């Protein structure tokens, strides 16, 4: 009874790991969701909005005030100028924004280039549009974008490429040079670039996140997807947005209209408050996460995992090869059942995990210090047990 499109997709790795960890004494470093509170100011704004009866539909593409707030925030922090009403769409998380963006541009039979490891929604989104994902594998441990690999993946049917920086799960921020490679590639082959920038405010050690949109020629073919989940620690609010050139933005707004008729009105009001946070808010959040990253990084390295220091985002990718497990799933399962720590197997970010890749697990550090320290303490038992 199911459509072919639905039969072509599967649930992502996160639910399966969560199911293994449920009702067990397990420290959850699997999900990219904070276990610390969201800012009081915006929680109060949400409560006030409900009490003030902002409880009916908001305008479908998003509250005007919110779209103006998002445009002002982007202009202030990045110097990029967008027309709020024709270029910005408020969506149900970046997740819906991505789906709307793909629906806006992908015809059946079109190919879309995805860089693996690829965040888990890109493949299903492309397949649900009737498109074909074409994979370019980034090589560990650097996971750098390489021109020759892109060129080998392109065909006359290629319509778009999606990139994600800061990157889930590697923590990489693509350099200006890598973005130039992407831009030249898009211009040469007339492709649209979707850039998933949900971790844009979570950058560490003073590393600056460069923007594809700013490279000459890219402003007319770049769709930016971002959101409130990570920047304001409200993953459950399901608030994201898409910023695009007017023509593409109209396509996104059409798709969004029929997918959702808009996102929760009172939460959009609270997001207006969020969009007006001073620069200090972003500095403090990034500093807090950098400190949590450092505690987890140090702990994982002491246990014996090989880890690159992530430049941004929520995650550390740990090479666990030396512990002797054949595959990441059995190690993840062992950690949940015997050690009491949940992490995500990297193979969940691949169509087919390369046989010669190391065994990697992804650990989230968007957690309270105590959560991370307890997890690290437990992981020490892995060292004792295996060595
Ligand atoms: N893109 C990436 C790379 C993510 O990691 C996530 C969430 N973890 C999303 C998109 C979706 O974010 P949202 O909660 O805004 O739907
Ligand atoms: N994006 C979250 C992560 O990478 C997962 C979101 C979800 O599907 N539960 O951990």
TrEMBL record:
Enzyme Commission designation: 2.6.1.-
Pfam families the UniProt entry points to: Aminotran_1_2
PROSITE patterns named among the record's database cross-references: AA_TRANSFER_CLASS_1
Record GO terms (molecular function): methionine-oxo-acid transaminase activity
Keyword set, alphabetical order: Aminotransferase, Pyridoxal phosphate, Transferase
Domain of life: Bacteria
Cited InterPro entries: Aminotransferase_I/II_large, Kynurenine-oxoglutarate_AT, NHTrfase_class1_PyrdxlP-BS, PyrdxlP-dep_Trfase, PyrdxlP-dep_Trfase_major, PyrdxlP-dep_Trfase_small
Cofactor or coenzyme needed: pyridoxal 5'-phosphate
Aminotransferase class I/classII large domain span: 24-379
Family (UniProt): Belongs to the class-I pyridoxal-phosphate-dependent aminotransferase family.
Name under which the protein is recorded: Aminotransferase
Species, as recorded: Sporomusa silvacetica DSM 10669
